[in-house]
From TrEMBL:
Molecular function (Gene Ontology), one example: DNA binding
Stated name of the protein: Centromere protein X
Taxon lineage: Eukaryota, Metazoa, Ecdysozoa, Nematoda, Chromadorea
Superkingdom as given in the UniProt entry: Eukaryota
Record CDD domains: HFD_CENP-X (cd22921)
GO BP terms in the entry: DNA repair; kinetochore assembly; replication fork processing; resolution of meiotic recombination intermediates
Cellular compartments annotated: Nucleus
Coiled-coil zones: none
Signal peptide, first to last residue: none
Keywords attached to this entry: DNA damage, DNA repair, DNA-binding, Nucleus
């Protein structure tokens, strides 16, 4: 789906690394397991594309309903198919 915005969402690799570390703590994953720089970079890239696609689909959903503002209901409507498409 084409982007509605010329600006792209960006996630810093450091932010992704922090999320990974928090997730390891939450799930009691072995502390010696680490993500490589390339692994964190790839996750940041995937997160950017996921969020960009979610925004585009939510905008399209709002437009199809004649709305000029995207709300949480538009995101809820597009999320199931988006999750399937990203699996």
């Amino acid at each position: 789906m084409a982007s509605h915005s010329s600006e792209k969402v960006r996630f810093k690799e450091a932010t992704i690394r922090q999320l990974l570390e928090l997730n390891k703590e939450k799930r009691a994953i072995d502390k010696t397991v680490k993500f490589s720089f390339d692994g964190a970079k790839l996750l940041a890239h995937l997160a950017r594309h996921f969020v960009d696609e979610a925004v585009c689909r939510a905008v399209a959903q709002a437009e199809s309903e004649g709305q000029t503002e995207v709300d949480v209901d538009h995101l809820r409507k597009v999320l199931p198919q988006l999750m399937l498409d990203f699996t």
